[in-house]
Specification:
Number of strands: 5
Shape: globular
Number of helices: 24
Structural class: mainly alpha
Low-confidence stretches: 154-160, 500-531
Strand order of the largest sheet: 3-2-1-4-5
Helix content: 40-55%
CATH class of the largest domain: Mainly Alpha
CATH superfamily of the largest domain: DNA Cyclobutane Dipyrimidine Photolyase, subunit A, domain 3
Radius of gyration: 24 Å
Order of helices and strands: EHEHHEHEHEHHHHHHHHHHHHHHHHHHH
Largest sheet: 5 strands, parallel
Oligomer: single chain
Strand content: 5-15%
Distance between the termini: 53 Å
CATH topology of the largest domain: DNA Cyclobutane Dipyrimidine Photolyase, subunit A, domain 3
Number of domains: 3
């Protein structure tokens, strides 16, 4: 029987810069596979919007000629069935730094491959390094990987991957899978759309990136909007990095008027490293999806005795539900939440504010709020998500504690009230001077605005001043302890950025979630308030 390869697509839904697809072209027979896994659909971080974006991306690949089969079921069972029908000898895929369920699945696939004599070859596709022993040298390794040549895709997909596989030849829709609509207005999916967004940002929209990214109004177009495409792999990180560097150099070589644009793209390029830096944390310590980075924070919030949030009490749940529904009584928080639930996207500063408010003002554990947000974000990337949930909640043990004021964020980033009025129509007639804090209006002012606080729009669920004082007392008190200070040294050496190539001086060697690899150094301070 001729040698046959099976290319297992996961978060790499593209044809270009795709090492597994290129490797498959060296086999006599090959086919690509995507599996709709019940473990994914049943996971607490899944949303139908994630699946719709995936299915739309797969449909485009198939339309462009990729011999693709789509199956439903647990991956091991699907592989077993396909091996019996095709006799494939090699499984080719990209590495994945995903949620706990996907890590457990990968372990099961590895065991199945060993027991059946199937060679499973995984290829890196981000800057994440498997089996990292130290953070020293990470930035150099990231740069080397990102600057390496793109994987050639000159072989037509239909020629490289020939053959069909029966009942999996049609990419299903959500309706065909029996799933209700998610109700979000999503960005366009697929590789073609991804390249269009990238080119539009580099040629036009990115000009004011550094100034545009903080306000939810200007960020809507001023940010790259590439995050869903990076999360689901319709673009590779290397493609984005190299296109950005090329455009940056052309701007530097151009007239002086282009220098502002070049400066903006330099900031964007740094955030590509930031992206992988945070993913590396989950790769190195997968438990951070479930428990505090700093174990000295265990018990800090209610239900946190073991570091992982338990179901909320009745009072906590009421505040949680108000936060989820955009009904906290704080207009900037509520407008951001309603916008996110409608579109699946929000700019970084406003995401940080939502988490800070939930974790500090409402004093809720990050695990449950993080799962809710994971379902809202179309660009849900587990490594970034859980690292940021903890960073904004003050449980990393090393990052600067930040508590965002919703009032200040409204005044700074929505000074004309455009964003708040768009998403909170009940506040449409509230005077601008009162819009950030409508509860301060007199009864007469409320009546004149047609917005009675506690009736048309909720009163604040907590008093900001006392809630922030409590959070600061707890967080700074925890960090002042001897155990917390000692633990912070260990966490910094395992997960912290490096400004130089000097080796760490601490006690603990880093152990990774996977099997092995090498090392490297971040030259940026990636703990700044990046967006």
């Amino acid at each position: 029987m001729p040698a046959t390869a099976l290319v297992w697509l996961k978060r790499d839904l593209r044809l270009a810069d795709h090492a597994p697809l290129q490797a498959a072209s060296r086999f006599e027979r090959a086919v690509a596979l995507f599996v709709i896994e019940p473990e994914w659909i049943c996971s607490a971080d899944f949303d139908a919007s994630h699946l719709e974006f995936t299915l739309s991306s797969l449909a485009e690949l198939r339309a462009r000629g990729l011999a693709l089969t789509v199956r439903r079921g647990s991956v091991v069972g699907v592989l077993d069935s396909l091996r019996q029908s095709t006799g494939f000898t090699h499984l080719l895929s990209h590495e994945e730094t995903g949620s706990g369920w996907s890590y457990a699945r990968d372990l099961a696939v590895a065991a199945w491959c060993r027991s059946h004599g199937v060679v499973w070859q995984e290829f890196p596709q981000t800057g994440v390094v498997r089996r990292l022993k130290s953070r020293n040298g990470w930035a150099a390794r990231w740069a080397a990987r990102m600057n390496s040549p793109l994987v050639a895709d000159e072989i037509a997909p239909a020629a490289a991957l020939g053959g069909e596989m029966g009942d999996g030849c049609v990419v299903p829709t959500l309706a065909a899978l029996g799933m209700p609509s998610h109700g979000k207005a999503l960005q366009a999916a697929g590789e073609t759309a991804a390249h269009a967004v990238l080119l539009d940002f580099l040629d036009r929209r990115g000009h004011d990136y550094r100034r545009a990214l903080s306000s939810p109004l200007s960020a809507e177009t001023g940010c790259s909007r590439l995050s869903p495409h990076l999360a689901w792999g319709t673009l590779s990180m290397r493609q984005v990095h190299q296109a950005t560097e090329e455009r940056h150099q052309r701007l530097l070589d151009g007239p002086p008027a282009d220098r502002q644009f070049a400066w903006a793209l330099r900031g964007f390029a740094g955030r590509l490293r930031w992206h992988c830096h945070f993913m590396q944390k989950l790769e190195d310590e997968p438990a951070i999806e479930f428990r505090n980075f700093a174990r000295s924070c265990d018990g800090l919030r209610p239900g946190d005795a073991e570091g992982a949030g338990s179901p909320f009490s009745e009072g906590d749940n009421a505040r949680f539900q108000a936060w989820c529904g955009g009904r906290t009584g704080y207009p900037m928080v509520d407008a951001c939440m309603r916008s996110l639930r409608a579109t699946g996207w929000l700019n970084f500063r406003m995401r940080a504010m939502l988490v800070s408010f939930a974790s500090c003002h409402l004093w809720l554990h990050w695990r449950q709020t993080g799962l809710f947000l994971a379902r809202q974000f179309l660009d849900f990337e587990p490594g970034i998500h859980w690292s940021q949930m903890q960073m904004q909640s003050g449980t990393t043990g090393i990052n600067t504690l930040r508590i965002y004021s919703p009032t200040k964020q409204a005044l700074d980033h929505d000074p004309d009230g455009i964003f708040i009025r768009r998403w909170l129509p009940e506040l449409a007639r509230v005077p601008l001077a009162a819009l950030a804090e409508p509860w301060r209006m007199t009864t007469g002012e409320q009546q004149a605005a047609g917005c009675l606080i506690g009736h048309d729009y909720p009163a604040p669920v907590v008093d900001a001043a006392s809630a922030v004082k409590h959070a600061k007392d707890q967080l700074y008190g925890q960090r002042a302890g001897v155990a917390a200070r000692g633990e912070a040294d260990d966490i910094q050496q395992r997960h912290g950025s490096r400004k130089s190539g000097l080796p760490p001086t601490g006690r603990n060697a880093s152990r990774s979630r996977r099997q092995p690899s090498e090392v490297a150094t971040p030259q940026l301070d990636l703990f700044r308030d990046a967006e």
